[in-house]
Amino acid sequence: MRAAFSLIGILVVAGVGLFLFRANFMGKSGATTMGTDNPRAVVDVTGVEADLTGLAQGERNYMAQNGKYATLEELESSGSVQEGRTKGRFGYTYSVETAEHSFTITAKYSGPTAGMPTISIDETMQIKK
Known about the structure:
Radius of gyration: 22 Å
Number of helices: 3
Number of strands: 4
Structural class: alpha+beta
Order of helices and strands: HHHEEEE
Oligomer: single chain
Largest sheet: 4 strands, antiparallel
Helix content: 40-55%
């Protein structure tokens, strides 16, 4: 009888632990990134911001060498940014809009979860969410 109560107690504690884990880290849909209040999402957004900063620095270098801002393809093929960096990550895709004296690089989220911000950077090197 004592062993049965011990087993039931262990199962209850494990069930509560699983419930708390799922509620805090998995969200309602079970996705690993649920909005910006999730620790995983914070890491993902930080990685995207680092990519945008690198791409913006590549744009500045490209402008200094060629007198104009570049498309993402031109940045990668010229070696101004690391290969593969223009493809996006964590459900984000990158795009660039250029003008004669300005550029804006935008990261838009198209993954399975809601609440992820659209992030952009321009020639001032300021990240905007």
